[in-house]
Structures are given as C-alpha cells and as structure tokens.
Amino acid sequence: MLTESTISLISLLLFALLANIPLGYLRENTERFSIRWFVYVHLSIPFIVALRYSLGFGWKVIPFSIGCAVAGQVLGSRVRRRSAS
Description:
mainly alpha
C-alpha cells in the first residue's frame, strides 16, 4: 500500500511533468532564447517549488522534479513537431 508521502511525491512529479507538456508545445514554435522561449521554459518552476514546499519535501526531490519538468518539455515539443508534419 502506498504511504501518504509516496502519493505526495507522485503528485508532485506528475504535476511537474503534466504542467510542462503544454509549455513545451508552445515553446517549440518560438525563437530560441527569446523572452517568450524563456517564459515557456521557466513558467512552471515557481508552482513546482510552491507545491514542493507545501507538501513538505526537501532538496532531495529537486533532481526528480527537474527531470520530470524537462521530460514534459520534450514531450510537448515532440507533439508539436508531429502535429506539424
């Protein structure tokens, strides 16, 4: 059976992944390193940090949440590329 902390961690990581899929989708069509590109890449970070603090997680989960955020960005950009072709 899953403990409360495990469910909280899964929720945090799913949020990081799912929040970044539409942002990666939008980022794919913008000029690299423009203001809009920067916003799409970093927009979810304050929300992920706030959720991490509210769930009581420390620094040890940051690499996992960053990994899920990057995976969401990559998935979103791949969806955009496939729909364009």
